[in-house]
Specification:
Helix content of chain A: over 70%
Strand content of chain B: under 5%
Distance between the termini of chain B: 40 Å
Oligomer: heterodimer
Largest sheet of chain B: none
Order of helices and strands of chain A: HHHHHH
Order of helices and strands of chain B: HHHHHHH
Radius of gyration of chain A: 17 Å
Number of helices of chain B: 7
Number of strands of chain B: 0
Radius of gyration of chain B: 18 Å
Strand content of chain A: under 5%
Largest interface: A-B, 108 and 114 residues
Number of domains of chain B: 1
Number of helices of chain A: 6
Shape of chain A: globular
Shape of chain B: globular
Distance between the termini of chain A: 28 Å
């Protein structure tokens, strides 16, 4: 079994290339929460087809790759309360902050955006505290 | 042409999320588990993703994208309440379930029904945000 960090690095490079294609092709920032959120709240009505094409790629590519990596497991929680609460937090949080791991993290940090750097520090901090509380202190996850 | 760039970008993004382990909730929670058995793999994902984007931004000065008039304007510098509170809420949810928005979409096709539950709740949260902002004007720092 090859070291996992190689897969992480290779996947990361592909993610960054995806961002570069959207930036150089369409002049847009590749932020997953903004692209989906604009369709949900109507703020992205003007370029809905671009957004759907992007999402089709994000949805479709893992589906094509999955048969080659059948040992892959997402280990998702099966606790509905946990899933709904986490989904609401992620949905509201990313729309309030105007970005998530891809927009603020990848596209923001790479151009030394203060907002991107601060947002990333905040969600990493909150994520660390969340795992500490829910895993180690309350034992829910 | 715009659609092709969007689709191609999505395909690369989806492939990267899939092979990097970002859709594996245990791996993500391991990376966030700073106080426990910390798994540093995802640092390589973020680091790897920043490299092509760094050059993409660097080379963009004085040029223009293929299908658009200009590149995005420089980012605003103002750190406001919305950014801080939103990022904290997002991080809390990310730690709780181990999914952020990109991987939540990338895993829908093969991950099973529990991924759709998370995705549905995320969409509801996104749809609620304009109402939350309207009822809590202080969130915007106004």
């Amino acid at each position: 079994m090859e070291p996992e960090w190689i897969w992480g690095l290779a996947g990361g490079l592909l993610i960054g290339l995806g961002g570069a294609v959207l930036l150089w092709g369409n002049g847009r920032i590749m932020g997953a929460s903004g692209i989906v959120g604009g369709l949900v709240d109507g703020s992205g009505r003007a370029d809905w087809a671009d957004r759907l094409a992007f999402l089709a790629g994000v949805f479709g590519m893992p589906l094509l790759l999955y048969p080659l990596f059948t040992e892959v497991d997402t280990h998702i929680s099966q606790n509905l309360t946990v899933l709904v609460a986490a989904g609401l937090l992620v949905g509201i949080g990313t729309r309030l902050a105007n970005g998530c791991t891809s927009g603020h993290g990848v596209c923001g940090i790479s151009r030394f955006s203060w907002r991107g750097i601060v947002a990333t520090l905040f969600y990493l901090l909150a994520g660390g505290v969340s795992v500490l509380l829910f895993r180690h202190i309350w034992g829910i996850i | 042409m715009r659609l092709l760039f969007s689709l191609f970008s999505g395909l690369l993004f989806g492939a990267g999320l899939f092979i990097s382990g970002m859709t594996d909730t245990t791996k993500v929670q391991g990376w966030l588990d700073i106080f426990g058995a910390w798994d540093p793999t995802l640092a390589f994902v973020l680091g790897g993703a920043i490299i092509p984007m760094f050059f993409a931004w660097r080379l963009s000065t004085g040029r223009r994208p293929v299908t658009a008039a200009q590149f995005p304007p420089p980012p605003p510098v103002k750190i406001d309440r919305r950014l801080a509170i939103g990022s904290l809420l997002f991080g809390a949810g990310w730690g709780l379930a181990g999914l952020c928005p990109g991987p939540a979409i990338a895993s829908l096709g093969y991950g099973g029904v529990f991924h759709w539950v998370f995705f549905g709740a995320m969409l509801v949260g996104m749809g609620l945000t304009p109402y939350i902002l309207r009822n809590f004007p202080r969130l915007s720092g106004a």
